[in-house]
């Protein structure tokens, strides 16, 4: 793999994705990983990410200089560039002014990083410190008005550095610079493709499962659908999907899932109605992490109960089912603290919320993948476009979109409002542009309204339309006013419990996409 060393502030995920877009597999490791452990992974190259620290602050993360003697190609970016300069004997200092945003840079045509790009290009800067002198043996290969040493390299040792962020789209030729580093500087071929991922996973799944029977929890979303299709490709009829109706679904969802799989994909699906179990366990619970833990636990309990049905109806070999497929993605793993040293922001139901007495061995064929990669392999596997292109819907469903207690009544109200919002957004042709648009019921908040002739005292719903590339960061979507107006009018006219429709205009960070 190409290792992306994470110096914080979530730059590393974006870099890892860009590397994969260049057809090269990448993994993120925390900066605290010892160099020997990094090298033990046999990296084809190493990229040092940006980060929020100053190299000369006490306790600032550093990189052991032995990394640069290992013969592995290295690219340092922003903070990674500075810490690299420092480790190799160059000088880093405060500039006194911050260079931030789009900045014109002059690049050196002789550097392989800039092959095929113009000598003057716009790059994305975000720094207050700067490399003042390149280490011995390094040539300076780019500069800006304020930063004379904006890139450097030692071609013979295959060590490179960039002060700007090639991973962000605002750096005009950033992706090209990354590709040049990988393919030319480090000599790594572009072999990470949807087809190669499928082949590799199919083989791994067959080896793990043998002739055992496998069940898959299907949510109807992209991740579990593609995971199921992949496992189906690997073991065919040994797979049975279980669709748990937890009572927290959106309108029409159950029927859609049942039709799409059985008819569309030829995969066996058994639906179990467990809404009593879930709503019973959620009664009186309002704290988001508690809800997530309960839902995660009840999911597993539901599977355990469904096992018996599968064994009865399908007749699993050996009379037991040991394997459970989950559509866990790489960002879920990182955000749930699975990559060491990262904060636990939310317990995603399919990672952090698993009970300890779990009775299944997990098959998680998407655990190393980002969402766009999952969509690509879904298409390659022939998963219908209406499933592959679906907007994400969280496993805990509407349970984390009712703020306050999750009751049947609250769910009915939210379901009705959500169906209207989805209908209007689709009718306006906005599905492709929106990452997702949660509709959130503030069941804890009451608000006075006047509906018909009388005073009402109902609840607000929040529209949370966001644009995003990977759900790690997101911006609120500037929806057309007339679409917002139609949604608001229809909701308040047809859902009597809702007295107000409000718009969430917060980005992520500091907010998250879901409210809980
Ligand atoms: P947040 O709210 O953390 O959400 O910004 C990021 C993305 O993840 C989805 N999400 C989940 N998906 N299980 C899932 O499968 C979960 O527990 C879960 N929580 C949030 C959310 O809809 C968004 O796309």
UniProtKB/TrEMBL annotation:
<protein>
    <recommendedName>
        <fullName>GMP synthase [glutamine-hydrolyzing]</fullName>
        <ecNumber>6.3.5.2</ecNumber>
    </recommendedName>
</protein>
<dbReference type="InterPro" id="IPR017926">
    <property type="entry name" value="GATASE"/>
</dbReference>
<keyword id="KW-0067">ATP-binding</keyword>
<dbReference type="InterPro" id="IPR004739">
    <property type="entry name" value="GMP_synth_GATase"/>
</dbReference>
<keyword id="KW-0547">Nucleotide-binding</keyword>
<feature type="binding site">
    <location>
        <begin position="219"/>
        <end position="225"/>
    </location>
    <ligand>
        <name>ATP</name>
    </ligand>
</feature>
<comment type="function">
    <text>Catalyzes the synthesis of GMP from XMP.</text>
</comment>
<comment type="subunit">
    <text>Homodimer.</text>
</comment>
<dbReference type="InterPro" id="IPR022955">
    <property type="entry name" value="GMP_synthase"/>
</dbReference>
<dbReference type="Pfam" id="PF00958">
    <property type="entry name" value="GMP_synt_C"/>
</dbReference>
<feature type="active site" description="Nucleophile">
    <location>
        <position position="78"/>
    </location>
</feature>
<comment type="pathway">
    <text>Purine metabolism; GMP biosynthesis; GMP from XMP (L-Gln route): step 1/1.</text>
</comment>
<dbReference type="InterPro" id="IPR001674">
    <property type="entry name" value="GMP_synth_C"/>
</dbReference>
<dbReference type="GO" id="GO:0005829">
    <property type="term" value="C:cytosol"/>
</dbReference>
<keyword id="KW-0332">GMP biosynthesis</keyword>
<feature type="active site">
    <location>
        <position position="167"/>
    </location>
</feature>
<dbReference type="InterPro" id="IPR014729">
    <property type="entry name" value="Rossmann-like_a/b/a_fold"/>
</dbReference>
<dbReference type="InterPro" id="IPR022310">
    <property type="entry name" value="NAD/GMP_synthase"/>
</dbReference>
<dbReference type="Pfam" id="PF02540">
    <property type="entry name" value="NAD_synthase"/>
</dbReference>
<dbReference type="GO" id="GO:0005524">
    <property type="term" value="F:ATP binding"/>
</dbReference>
<dbReference type="InterPro" id="IPR029062">
    <property type="entry name" value="Class_I_gatase-like"/>
</dbReference>
<dbReference type="Pfam" id="PF00117">
    <property type="entry name" value="GATase"/>
</dbReference>
<dbReference type="GO" id="GO:0003921">
    <property type="term" value="F:GMP synthase activity"/>
</dbReference>
<dbReference type="InterPro" id="IPR025777">
    <property type="entry name" value="GMPS_ATP_PPase_dom"/>
</dbReference>
<keyword id="KW-0315">Glutamine amidotransferase</keyword>
<feature type="domain" description="GMPS ATP-PPase">
    <location>
        <begin position="192"/>
        <end position="390"/>
    </location>
</feature>
<keyword id="KW-0658">Purine biosynthesis</keyword>
<feature type="active site">
    <location>
        <position position="165"/>
    </location>
</feature>
<keyword id="KW-0436">Ligase</keyword>
């Amino acid at each position: 793999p190409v290792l992306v060393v994470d110096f914080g502030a979530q730059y590393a995920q974006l870099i890892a994705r860009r590397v994969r877009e260049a057809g090269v597999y990448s993994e993120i490791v925390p900066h605290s990983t010892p160099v020997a452990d990094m090298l033990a992974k046999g990296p084809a190259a190493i990229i040092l990410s940006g980060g929020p620290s100053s190299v000369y602050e006490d306790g600032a993360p550093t990189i052991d200089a032995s990394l640069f003697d290992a013969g592995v190609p290295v690219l340092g970016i922003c903070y990674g560039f500075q810490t690299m300069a420092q480790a190799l004997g160059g000088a880093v200092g405060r500039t006194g002014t911050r260079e931030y945003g789009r900045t014109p840079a002059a690049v050196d045509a002789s550097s392989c990083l800039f092959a095929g790009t113009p000598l003057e290009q716009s790059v994305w800067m975000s720094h207050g410190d700067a490399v003042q002198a390149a280490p011995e043996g390094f040539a300076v290969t780019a500069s800006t008005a304020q930063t004379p040493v904006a890139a450097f390299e030692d071609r013979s040792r295959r060590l490179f550095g960039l002060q700007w962020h090639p991973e962000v789209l605002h750096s005009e030729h950033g992706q090209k610079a990354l590709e040049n580093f990988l393919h030319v500087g480090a000599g790594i071929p572009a072999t990470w493709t949807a087809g190669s991922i499928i082949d590799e996973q199919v083989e791994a799944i067959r080896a793990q499962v043998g002739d055992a029977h496998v069940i898959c929890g299907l949510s109807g979303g992209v991740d579990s659908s593609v995971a199921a299709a992949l496992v189906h490709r690997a073991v065919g009829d040994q797979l049975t999907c279980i669709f748990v109706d937890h009572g927290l679904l959106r309108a029409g969802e159950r029927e859609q899932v049942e039709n799409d799989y059985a008819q569309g994909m030829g995969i066996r699906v058994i639906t179990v109605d467990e809404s009593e179990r879930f709503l019973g366990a959620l009664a009186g619970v309002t704290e988001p992490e508690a809800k997530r833990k309960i839902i995660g636990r009840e999911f597993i309990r539901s599977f355990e109960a469904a096992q018996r049905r599968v064994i009865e109806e399908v007749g699993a070999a050996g009379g037991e089912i040991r394997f459970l497929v989950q559509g866990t993605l790489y960002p879920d793993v990182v955000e749930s603290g699975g990559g060491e040293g990262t904060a636990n922001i939310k317990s995603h139901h399919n990672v952090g919320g698993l009970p300890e007495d779990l009775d299944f061995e997990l098959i998680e064929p998407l655990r190393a993948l980002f969402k766009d990669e999952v969509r690509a392999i879904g298409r390659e596997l022939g998963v219908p476009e209406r499933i592959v292109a679906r907007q994400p819907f969280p496993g805990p469903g509407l349970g984390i979109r009712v703020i306050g207690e999750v009751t049947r009544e609250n769910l009915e109200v939210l379901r009705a409002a959500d169906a209207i919002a989805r209908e209007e957004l689709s009718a306006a042709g906005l599905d492709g542009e929106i990452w997702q648009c949660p509709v959130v019921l503030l069941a804890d908040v009451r608000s006075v309204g006047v509906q018909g002739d009388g005073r009402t005292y109902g609840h607000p719903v929040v529209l949370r339309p966001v644009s995003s590339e990977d759900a790690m960061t997101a911006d609120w979507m500037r929806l057309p006013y007339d679409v917002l107006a139609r949604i608001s009018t229809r909701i308040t006219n047809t859902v009597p419990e809702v007295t107000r429709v409000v718009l969430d205009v917060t980005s992520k960070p500091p907010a998250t996409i879901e409210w809980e």
